[in-house]
Design goal:
heterodimer; A: about 120 residues; mainly beta; four-stranded antiparallel beta sheet; about 0% helix; globular; B: about 120 residues; seven-stranded mixed beta sheet
Chain lengths: ~120, ~120
């Protein structure tokens, strides 16, 4: 069975602060994908990143960075110099590679509020 | 064009009504998905179509009936719904990558359904 845990239910920061969203996962598969999605108040889930299980390189995209550590089964997401527009629910997700048609196992989500 | 469109944006229906939700993508993706999302919860997978064939049905009640008329369109027919079916209904699509792996899913803006 697969499981994704986002222990932080809600985070509140002031604009320009850095913030890290934690994600821990469980799977028996040796190959899998990890994802982060953003869901603003409008409701649409916006794809942010996909990481393959055998690629442990960290990734940076503008103010966003991701730290994948297979040894601790974690895939954390950091927003540097947060902005009000970053306020949203963020979901970490996991999928098997091969037989499940890309079925996603989502974490419960972290609500991020960035105050001006 | 990385866009999934959904209509209508909002729908209010009575328990005896029949209505349909529509989803369209023109990214050439061969997998399409229906999700149901309740407030403050992650999306729950309902159905997966792969190459226009129903591949996954997550034990969804028969009052929800999916249809995939062609590779770009996905419908969800609704009949005799219950008030607890009120939720955000999200459509997504993804591309099949190498070795049968399915890549990231791109989501539409959703339909907010209210059942009276």
């Amino acid at each position: 069975a697969q499981k994704v845990t986002q222990a932080q239910t809600e985070i509140s920061v002031v604009e320009k602060e850095d913030v890290t969203l934690d994600c821990v996962y469980e799977t028996r598969d040796t190959t899998y994908y990890l994802f982060w999605y953003k869901q603003p108040p409008s409701g649409e889930l916006v794809f942010l990143i996909r990481r393959n299980s055998f690629d442990e390189q960290n990734e940076i995209s503008g103010r966003y960075s991701w730290n994948f550590q297979k040894s601790t089964s974690s895939f954390n997401f950091t927003i540097t110099a947060s902005q009000v527009v970053d306020s949203a629910v963020y979901f970490c997700a996991l999928s098997r590679i091969g037989t499940s048609y890309g079925k996603l196992t989502f974490g419960q989500g972290t609500i991020l509020t960035v105050h001006p | 064009d990385t866009e999934v469109t959904q209509t209508p944006k909002h729908l209010v229906m009575g328990m005896t009504n029949k209505k349909s939700l529509k989803c369209e993508q023109h990214m050439g993706h061969r997998a399409m998905y229906w999700y149901k999302q309740k407030a403050k919860k992650p999306p729950e997978l309902m159905f997966v179509y792969s190459y226009e064939k129903l591949s996954i049905n997550e034990s969804v009640p028969s009052r929800f009936s999916p249809e995939c008329p062609n590779s770009s369109l996905l419908n969800l027919h609704l009949h005799a719904l219950q008030p607890e079916d009120s939720a955000l209904y999200l459509c997504a699509s993804s591309q099949e990558g190498n070795s049968g792996a399915y890549n990231e899913q791109f989501f539409g803006p959703g339909t907010r359904l209210t059942v009276l």
